[in-house]
Design brief:
The chain has 79 residues and is mainly β. The relative contact order is 0.32. It has strands at 13-19, 25-29, 35-38, 44-50, 57-64, 74-78.
Length: 79
């Protein structure tokens, strides 16, 4: 789940959380920097993403499993 910020903001960090295949590498791009984490044995993940203040941050979340299968991107704009 990615909760969008609905207007320009001074928010510098947003938590991105969701589920993926257990042990998958989860990568979030589109903020001020790339954020990565590993999904837990239950598949849950949560990671803080640095945002660019007073700007639209078009976040894209993808998960890559141990066999290098890449999920479709989940996208959201934080504006």
């Amino acid at each position: 789940m990615v909760a969008p910020v609905t207007s320009l903001t001074n928010l510098l960090v947003a938590e991105v959380s969701g589920t993926a295949e257990a042990g998958s590498n989860v990568e979030i791009t589109g903020g001020a920097s790339v954020a990565n984490t590993i999904a837990s044995p239950t598949g849950a993940f949560a990671v803080d993403v640095q945002l660019t203040a007073n700007s639209v941050n078009s976040l894209s979340v993808v998960a890559t499993d141990a066999s290098n299968n890449v999920s479709p991107a989940a996208n959201v704009d934080t504006n």
